[in-house]
């Protein structure tokens, strides 16, 4: 079991590290690299077409601006691909979001919100959880913990009121 994380530029690492950190917390191995669909297409092709041989079962691909990387990756494999649109300066990441989410028929890319590499990792874990019961159990525990945290905050808010809550 392994997840592949690929990004178009090292400037995307500030966002994509959230995917790596989430996978680490769940104890799921991954590999992470930089390969540009535009500047190093041969490297992208080689990395993707050998991914299954290296044990990769799900790919998370992050890119900004024109964001062709997730679609190119999906065109080269039958593995599930999750695209992470990276927020850019000019269009606040909408350009990347539209580039990733508007794939042509036959080349699906699951897409998360702008800069949501953590959610991409959680989706990858849910996909892996179909095959690996230990991953599924860790996800159940994770969601239960989130539920408990929300209930604790709700109880505090209801007990002390919103003004005091905001002061804390």
UniProtKB/TrEMBL annotation:
Keyword Isomerase: yes
Key words, A-Z: Isomerase, Purine biosynthesis
The keyword Cell inner membrane is assigned to this record: no
EC number, UniProt record: 5.4.99.18
Highest taxon above the source species: Bacteria
Record domain PurE: where: 1-150
GO BP field: 'de novo' IMP biosynthetic process
Gene Ontology MF terms in the entry: 5-(carboxyamino)imidazole ribonucleotide mutase activity
Pathway: Purine metabolism; IMP biosynthesis via de novo pathway; 5-amino-1-(5-phospho-D-ribosyl)imidazole-4-carboxylate from 5-amino-1-(5-phospho-D-ribosyl)imidazole (N5-CAIR route): step 2/2
Transmembrane segments annotated in the record for this chain: none
Entry-linked InterPro entries: PurE_ClassI, PurE_dom, PurE_prokaryotes
Reactions catalysed, as given in the entry: 5-carboxyamino-1-(5-phospho-D-ribosyl)imidazole + H(+) = 5-amino-1-(5-phospho-D-ribosyl)imidazole-4-carboxylate
Binding, substrate: 9, 12, 39
Task of the protein: Catalyzes the conversion of N5-carboxyaminoimidazole ribonucleotide (N5-CAIR) to 4-carboxy-5-aminoimidazole ribonucleotide (CAIR).
HAMAP family, alphabetized: PurE_classI
Family designation: Belongs to the AIR carboxylase family. Class I subfamily.
Protein name (database record): N5-carboxyaminoimidazole ribonucleotide mutase
């Amino acid at each position: 079991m392994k997840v592949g994380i690929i990004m178009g530029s090292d400037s995307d690492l500030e966002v994509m590290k959230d995917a790596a950190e989430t996978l680490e917390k769940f104890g799921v191995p991954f590999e992470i690299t930089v390969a540009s669909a535009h500047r190093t297409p041969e490297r992208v092709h080689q990395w993707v077409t050998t991914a299954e041989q290296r044990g990769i079962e799900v790919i998370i691909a992050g890119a900004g601006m024109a964001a062709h990387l997730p679609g190119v990756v999906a065109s080269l494999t039958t593995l599930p691909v999750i695209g992470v649109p990276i927020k850019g300066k000019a269009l606040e990441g909408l350009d990347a979001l539209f580039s990733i989410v508007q794939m042509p028929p036959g080349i699906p890319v699951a897409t998360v919100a702008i800069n949501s590499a953590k959610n991409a990792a959680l989706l990858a874990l849910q996909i892996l959880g179909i095959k690996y019961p230990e991953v599924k159990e860790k996800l159940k525990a994770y969601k239960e913990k989130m539920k408990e945290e929300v209930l604790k905050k709700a109880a505090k808010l209801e007990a002390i009121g919103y003004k005091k809550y905001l002061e804390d």
